[in-house]
Write a structure and sequence with these properties.
OB fold (Dihydrolipoamide Acetyltransferase, E2P); 2 helices; 24% helix
Length: 111
């Protein structure tokens, strides 16, 4: 048996198995602020939005495919625009995917 060939085959299998391990998901963060812009293709789906945080930063978020899944009060584009018009704050839970901010939820902030 050709041991060198067997060793190379095992090394290749090990390398593929190690590269297939998924990277851990980025930790979630939360920020509060007022909405400056909301982009949506219709009345039910939000594509992205811009938030001015309480400390004055402007952050642009794209929404995750499951944006607001499981929240008690659905934040529709119209509801987000109402917040924007009235200056009512929202709280956004998001993750940073290599510099791209991905919103997981946006919820009303209790006064």
């Amino acid at each position: 048996m050709n041991w060198r060939l067997l060793w190379v085959a095992c090394a290749c299998v090990a390398a593929v198995a190690c590269s297939a391990v998924a990277a851990p998901a980025a930790p979630t963060q939360t920020v509060r602020g007022v909405l400056l812009d909301v982009e949506s293709p219709g009345i039910q789906k939000v594509d992205s939005f811009t938030l001015r945080t309480d400390d004055g930063q402007e952050l642009h978020f794209t929404t995750a495919p499951n944006f607001n899944e499981g929240v008690a009060h659905l934040m529709t584009p119209g509801h987000m625009r109402q917040h924007m018009a009235l200056g009512d704050p929202v709280e956004v839970t998001y993750r940073d995917d290599n510099g791209s901010l991905v919103a997981l939820t946006a919820t009303d902030v209790s006064p």
